[in-house]
Amino acid sequence: MSNKEIREFNEKLCRGLEIAEKRMLQEKALRGQDVIVCGTDMVIRRIPAKQVIAENPVFQD
Question: Is residue 59 scored above 90 in pLDDT?
Fold first, then answer.
């Protein structure tokens, strides 16, 4: 694979993962469920999916 092909593959993979994460969060938010996250301080927390969506513009429509 050329560098260009590798870069394109990585971009497609990242975009697919973003879409999957967004869909998962939306479904959990509809059900009133929490997600488990690990912050930069390395502490694992349980946070409502609605809060994750509200605090991250990446997941907002």
Answer: no
